[in-house]
Design goal:
By secondary structure, this protein is mostly helical. It contains 5 helices and no strands. The longest helix has 60 residues.
C-alpha cells in the first residue's frame, strides 16, 4: 500500500483587534498632539493680512519687471530691423544722389544731345540712316542646302562660298 502525504497550507493568522486598536489610538494621539500645538499658537490676523499684501505687491512687481523686460527685447529687435531698413534707404539715397550728379554733368548732357536729339558740334556732320521699323523675316533654307558634306572638300567650299 502506498503512503499518502497530506500537505496542510497555513493561512496567515488574522490580525487581532487589539493591534488595530493600538495603532488607531497611537494615530489619534499624534493627531491630537499636533492640533494642540496649533491651538497654543495665537495668530495675529492683521499681521498675516499685511504680510499677504506685501507678498502680493512683490509678486506683481516681479511680473511687471518680466513684462517690461520682454517688451524691451521685442522693442530692441524691432529697432534693429528698422535700423537695417534705414541703412538700406541711406545707401539707396547715396546711389540716387550720385546718379543725379551724373545726369547734371556736362558730359552726360552732351552725350544725351548727340544720341537722342541728333545734335552735333559745328565741325561735325550728322548722317541719318533710314531703317524700317520692322526687320524683314529671314526665309528658312531648304533642308538639302542646309546639309554640307564635310568628306568632300571641293563641294564643301563651293557651297560655303557660292551657295551651290
Amino acid at each position: 500500500m502506498g503512503v499518502f502525504r497530506v500537505i496542510i497550507l497555513q493561512t496567515p493568522r488574522p490580525v487581532k483587534h487589539y493591534k488595530i486598536k493600538m495603532l488607531a489610538s497611537k494615530l489619534k494621539f499624534r493627531i491630537n498632539h499636533i492640533l494642540a500645538r496649533f491651538k497654543l499658537i495665537k495668530i495675529d490676523w492683521s499681521r498675516v493680512f499685511v504680510q499677504g499684501i506685501f507678498f502680493g505687491v512683490i509678486v506683481l512687481l516681479i511680473i511687471n519687471i518680466y513684462i517690461t523686460f520682454d517688451k524691451g527685447v521685442t522693442t530692441l529687435a524691432r529697432f534693429e530691423e528698422e535700423q537695417a531698413k534705414l541703412d538700406a534707404i541711406v545707401a539707396e539715397n547715396e546711389y540716387l544722389i550720385e546718379q543725379v550728379k551724373e545726369y547734371d554733368s556736362l558730359e552726360y548732357k552732351r552725350m544725351y544731345a548727340r544720341e537722342n536729339l541728333n545734335l552735333a558740334h559745328d565741325n561735325e556732320t550728322i548722317y541719318y540712316v533710314d531703317r524700317p521699323e520692322e526687320l524683314p523675316e529671314i526665309e528658312p533654307l531648304e533642308e538639302e542646302t542646309m546639309r554640307i558634306a564635310f568628306n568632300d572638300p571641293a563641294t564643301y567650299w563651293l557651297k560655303l562660298l557660292f551657295g551651290r
